[in-house]
Amino acid sequence: MKFNIHNRRYTGSKTKLNIWIESLLDKHCKNYSSFADIFAGTGSVAAHNINKFKKIILNDILFSNQIIYSAFFSQSRYSKSKLTNYENIFQEIKAKSVEKNYFSNNFGNKFFNKEDALLIGHIRELIEKIKIDLNKKEYDILISSLLYSADKAANTVGHYDAHRKIKNIKQKFNFKLIEPLSHQSEVTIYREDANELVKKISADIVYIDPPYNSRQYSRFYHVLENLTQWKKPKLHGVALKPEPENMSDYCRNAAFEKFNNLISNIDAKKIIVSYNNTYKSKSSSSKNKITLEQISSTLKNKGKTHVYSKSHAHFNAGKTDFSDHKEYLFITEVIK
Question: In angstroms, rounded to a whole number, what is the distance separating the alpha carbons of residues 8 and 184?
Fold first, then answer.
């Protein structure tokens, strides 16, 4: 079995809400040809609806997500037999034959079983060495496959802000390929600040699912970012994080100002915004930086707005009690 795009753990993922979101798209957004997801995260919303649109725009600030989009969405040619051959080679490697490496030295017996960390670091080095034998699509598929395989074996609760305190971490790593999407859409991929990106793109539908609380995604997924870029930076603290990069103002007190600016610059017929109501959470890190009322008022200034809600389990690290969690979807018909 190969990994599909939704087969990863990701805070705020809309995978379980895709059918609901699709039903509302079908109700309000028929016969549109272009769709932009400017905080795309896992990319699962675009993937779920890809056959509805001729043009898709994907954007996210994380390096790991950018390469994952390229691997799944790009229509560039690649050799399945070549990749299967490398998959077989990687699966045959034994941890006993592998020397210590950057990844095992830093993350072994913490975020991963020691042997798993050895294999992950070794395979990452091998992919760089064989890069000359790969085109961009093939390289992106192998890196993305490693990210998915590593995430499946990680000793975490679904992000990398901390690892679980376990003495004997189970060995679970197994390198498997991803299954790229088959589609006919024209896909454009960006890794930019969404507020700047919307000034130079247009789409019939712009879907927005920004971070609303203080959890920085570049810090939550620093291990996958590290594995993707492979710059081997010096790491700090118990969570072994590199120096901060790609920090979002949507996770700070400036979030509402940024959101207002974003909406004012969007060129679209319909704006769709996902929102979850953790504003009253007891956990400070879970509290939304933008309120439901602020989003509603901003969107109503842009056009006629419909609001829908659905009960939905939210991410919980065990520090807060928030039983009445709902996911909201705003659909705004832009007045020009």
Answer: 24
Quote the pTM value: 0.93
Enumerate the H helices of the chain as residue ranges.
18-28, 44-48, 63-73, 80-92, 102-107, 114-129, 136-153, 194-197, 217-220, 222-229, 255-265, 292-302
- According to DSSP, the residues that pair with 308 across neighbouring strands are 329
CB contact set of 40 (below 8 Å; sequence gap of 6+) = 46, 58, 59, 60, 65, 69, 209
Question: What is the C-alpha to C-alpha distance for residues 273 and 25, in angstroms, rounded to an integer?
Answer: 12
> How far is Cα of residue 85 from the mean position of the Cα atoms in its chain?
28
- Which of the four CATH numbers 3.90.480.10, 3.40.50.1240, 3.40.50.150, 3.90.650.10 does domain 1-74+184-214+252-336 have? 3.40.50.150
Strand order in the sheet with 55-59: 186-190, 55-59, 34-37, 203-208, 268-276, 326-334, 303-311
Mean pLDDT per 10-residue run, the chain (336 residues)?
Answer: 95 92 94 97 96 97 98 97 98 96 97 97 98 98 98 93 91 97 97 97 96 82 97 94 88 89 97 79 55 93 95 51 72 92
Q: What is the pLDDT of residues 203-262, one digit of tens each?
A: 999 999 988 777 788 889 999 999 999 999 999 999 999 998 988 888 888 888 999 999
Within 10 A of 132 (CB to CB), how many other CB atoms are there?
6
**Which of 288-303 are b and which e, b meaning 16 or more Cβ less than 10 Å from the residue's Cβ?**
bbbbbebbbebbeebb
Where do runs of H (alpha helix) occur along 243-318?
A: 255-265, 292-302
Query: How far apart are alpha carbons 295 and 266 in whole angstroms?
Result: 15
Burial code of 85-96, b = ≥16 C-beta within 10 A, e = fewer?
ebbeebeeeebe
Which amino acid, residue 249? D
Instruction: CATH 3.40.50.150 in the chain: give the residue spans.
Output: 1-74+184-214+252-336
100 DSSP β-pair partners: none
